[in-house]
Amino acid sequence: MKQRIHIYIFLSLSVLLLSWEANLLKPVQADEILIPEESIRLRILANSNSPIDQQVKHNIRNAVNAQITEWVELLDDVDDARDIIGENIDDLNSIVGEELEKVGNDESYNVSLTETSFPTKLYGDRLYPAGDYEAVLIELGDGQGDNWWCVLFPPLCFLDFSNGDAVAHEADETPKEEENEEEVEVSFFIVEIFTSIVDRFKA
User: Fold this and answer.
1) Full-model pTM
2) Strands 131-140 and 165-166: what pairing?
3) 169: which strand partners?
4) Among candidates 45, 41, 40, which has minimal Cα distance to 147?
């Protein structure tokens, strides 16, 4: 009876270990899986990270996204989307101005349809590489606050890609090493458990 219990424990731990290893080896998927190569993004640079400036950024995001979605939701060609957005840039400028006016904010702003730089982002298990992408770029004031971005065409702004994690740079090497050490310790601990169970099973 005891041997049977030991076998069950051994099998359960084996499945757990294999699942854990499989998760570690799970590949990061590339940008094109979710975002088509021909797309138009929305990027908003807040004036600063103050609560007021960040709230203004979110208000403008909601208003601009709602308007552009009306324009492009029935389109299936990026050239058509680009044309209609470009022809109505003045309307987007008005929307931004109205949102700023609502909160008594008279800071400068600029709205353009252009290619702009995006940093590398890890969103879930998908990697979005850095690069220059076509986007409606909205710069508020000094543009020194956290940015927000999504995909306007095809309409994917229900996904807040800006909440993804920035891919680590050289300054993050030490934390990575610590994480690797922890993984080694966990692996060693599991090996010890297996060894102990095998020894008892043999006994």
Assistant:
1) 0.64
2) unpaired
3) none
4) 45
